[in-house]
Amino acid sequence: MTSKQAAANTPSPISIAAKGYAVDSESTPFKLFNFERRMPAADDVVIRIHYCGICHSDIHQVYNEWHSSKYPMVPGHEITGVVEQVGSSVKGFRVGDHAGVGCMVDSCRKCATCKKDIEQVCGDLCLTYNSTELDKVTPTYGGYSNLITVKEHFVCKIPKNLPLDAAAPLLCAGITTYSPLRRYKVDKHTQLGIVGLGGLGHIGVKLGAAMGAHVTVISTSESKRDDAMKLGAKVFIVSKDDEQMKTVANSLDLIIDTVSAPHDVGPLLNLLKFEGVYCVVGAPTKPLEVGAFTLLMKRPTITGSGIGGMKETQEMLDFCGKHNITCDIEKIDATPETIKAAYDRTVKADVKYRFVLDILNAFK
Amino acid sequence: MTSKQAAANTPSPISIAAKGYAVDSESTPFKLFNFERRMPAADDVVIRIHYCGICHSDIHQVYNEWHSSKYPMVPGHEITGVVEQVGSSVKGFRVGDHAGVGCMVDSCRKCATCKKDIEQVCGDLCLTYNSTELDKVTPTYGGYSNLITVKEHFVCKIPKNLPLDAAAPLLCAGITTYSPLRRYKVDKHTQLGIVGLGGLGHIGVKLGAAMGAHVTVISTSESKRDDAMKLGAKVFIVSKDDEQMKTVANSLDLIIDTVSAPHDVGPLLNLLKFEGVYCVVGAPTKPLEVGAFTLLMKRPTITGSGIGGMKETQEMLDFCGKHNITCDIEKIDATPETIKAAYDRTVKADVKYRFVLDILNAFK
C-alpha cells in the first residue's frame, strides 16, 4: 500500500477547532484551552454550547478527590445549547434545535444493560469528560467549552418552553433524582423524603411534588425551611432536632438522600416505614454505615442511583417541559476566576441551587 | 370490696413449677433456676420441652453484648417438645402433639404488621426470653427449661417425620433464612449466594437447594468446601481469594449474609448482578460499611431480615417436612458446664452446625 492509498483510506483529518477552560493538574487554576472536536460522523450532532451547570462532581474531579482524574481536564456535564451541524444519518435533530448533553457521550450499545436503556452502567461507558471515547485512547472533554460533537443517541431534546440556562442542570441533577422517583413509582400516595436541599435536592422536591407525592425535606439547616416549602415540600424538619425527627419517624415510603458530605444515615433510616426504600444519589467519599438491627427490623431497601439512561433522560426532560420545571440557578460569567469562586461557594453549599456558566458569551 | 371479693375476682393463682438454667449476670455461670410458668389460659398451650438449640444470639444476650440484658435470664428460643396441656379454646393442638416455639411468644395482634402476619416487628412484641409479657412486667423465660406456657398463636406444629432434636434450630435458624428466600422468590432460576457456613448458613444452603436455586457458598475457610457441596451447594469460593471471587463477580441474584462477625461487605456486593439483592440475617455489632459508588452503579437492594411471622414459620416447617430437611446438629447433655463449653465452641465456630441441648433428660 502506498502512502497515497493509505491517506485515501484514512478518515478525513479535518477537525473542528474548539476552546474551553481546562485544568492541568489538581493544584493549578483553570486556563484557556484550545483543542479539537471531531468532525461529525454520520450519526453525530455538533452542538454550540450555550450553558453548562457546575455539578459538585466537577469539583471532586478537578481536585482529584476520587483519585481517578486525568489532565488536562475540561469539566462539565450539564450542557445545553443549539444544534450547529448534523451527520448524514441523524434523524432526530436539525440545525437550530435546542439540545442537551449529560454525563455520558457513548457506550457499547450491545450489552444487557445498554439494551435495557440503562447505558450508564455499561462497562464501556464513555463519560462526557475525564474519560475516553470507545477507542479507550481519545480523551473526552466536557461542557466548559464552546462546541461538542456527540453521537445522536446521547443527545437529548430540550423542550422549547424551557430556558436553556435553567434547564442545563436537569441533564445531571434532574435525571439523578427523577430516575429513582420513577423506579420506585412515586405518585400521590407516596410519602417522599428528600435529604439535603442543594442542587440535587431542590430539583428532587420539584419533581416529587409534580408527581403528586407528599414531600418532606430533611435538612441540617433551619434556614432552608422557606425555600423547601416554596419548592413544593409539605413538611420540613431539621435533622439535628430529635423532636422534629420523631414527628416523621416510621412514616416515609421513599427517601432520596442527596447529600455528598459524610453523614450518619442511622437517624434517617428511622424515618422509613417498614420495608421503605432509602436511595442514595449523592456520592460521599466515606462509606455509609448501616446498623444490622435496622436492617433486620425495618427490612428497608437501601440502594442507590446514578443519573439515568438516555431514554429516561429524555422522558425526564419531556416531564419537565410538561410541568414547566427547571432548576433554580445562579447564572454567572465563565472565566477561570468566576469558576474558581463558584467552586468555593459550592463547596460551602452557598448557592441557590446551581451555578450555570454562560458559555456562549465567554467564547464569542 | 372485701378482700374475699377481691380474691374471687382474681384469676387462679395456681402456677406450674418449672425449672431451668439461668444466669444472674453477664459474668456469672449458669445455675439451676426454679421458677413458675402460668397455668394455661383458654388460648394457651403447655409444652414439655424436649430440646432447645443454642443460637449465637443466646451468647450475645447472656454476656450482655447487645447492652439490653435482663437477669436472671433463661435463654433459648429454638424449642421443640410435646404438648402436655391445652387451654379450653385451643383448636390446633392436642396433648401429645409435637410442637415448637421460636423467638416470640406474644404480640399485640392488632397493628398493621401483626395483621399482615409479620408479628416479629410488632412494637409490643414479647420475645421468648429477656423480654416481658404484654403486661410489660412479667419476665419471659426461654427454652433452657423443662416446661413453657405459650399462646396457641405462637406455637408451631412440627411435622411428625422430623426428629424433634434436629428440628429445634429450624425455629430460629430455619425461619431466618427461609423468610428472605421466599421474600425474594427463590426458584430454579435463582443464582443464590450464601455467605458463611454456620448455623444459619448451612440451613440456608439446604433450603435454597430444595427450592431449586443454584447455590454458591462464600466462606472464609477452604475447610468448609466438602460440607458445602454435601449440603447442596454447586459452587464454593473462599472470600479471601481474589481469583476465586472474580469467577463469581456480577453473577448472583441474591446473597444471604449469615455472618455475625464484623466483615467487609464490599467484595461481597461485587458478586451481585446489577440490581441484585444483598440480605443480612446475621447481626454484627459493627455497622455494615457500604461505598456510595457501589450503590450508584450496582443499584443493589441492601436489606435485612429477622426471623419471620408465625404463618411463615409454620409454612417453613411444613416445607421442611415435605423435603425432609432438618439441621445438622451436635446433641449434648444440658448442664451448666456443657452449656458453657458449647458457648465457647460456638464463638469459635467450632460446631457442625448447631448445638442442641437435651432438655428432657436434664430435668427428668
UniProtKB/TrEMBL annotation, chains A, B:
* Gene3D superfamilies per UniProt: Medium-chain alcohol dehydrogenases, catalytic domain, NAD(P)-binding Rossmann-like Domain
Reading the lineage from the top rank, the first entry is Eukaryota
Question: CDD domains, per this entry?
Answer: CAD1
Q: Where would I find the Enoyl reductase (ER) domain in this sequence? A: 27-357
**Keyword hit for Oxidoreductase:** yes
Q: Mention one GO molecular function.
A: oxidoreductase activity, acting on the CH-OH group of donors, NAD or NADP as acceptor
Say yes or no: keyword Oxidoreductase present. Answer: yes
State the PANTHER family in the record.
ALDEHYDE REDUCTASE
Q: What family is it from?
A: Belongs to the zinc-containing alcohol dehydrogenase family.
Q: What is this protein called?
A: Enoyl reductase (ER) domain-containing protein
